[in-house]
Amino acid sequence: MAKKSQRKSDDTFRKGDKVAWNSHGSTAEGKVERKITKRTEAAGREVDASPEEPQYEVRSDKSGNTAVHKPSALRRR
């Protein structure tokens, strides 16, 4: 029986993945720009990420702005 290729978990995203998230009472859509795994500044704020608790910088398709979200806030499109 052939083994299907799967990602480690549903919370793992890669650069270029299309995602959606809740934003100010509506749904925003965009693409993952990068995975953040250490404390850094992104999207105009300090992001407290780690390898155990990564966050993702995403770019909105509509506005072109970036935001940073935890994996639990993102859904695949």
UniProtKB/TrEMBL annotation:
Transmembrane segments: none annotated. Residues 16-74 form the Hypervirulence associated protein TUDOR domain. Residues 7-18, 30-48 have a biased composition (Basic and acidic residues). Residues 1-77 are annotated as: Disordered. InterPro entries: Hva1_TUDOR (IPR021331). This is DUF2945 domain-containing protein. It comes from Streptomyces sp. 900105245.
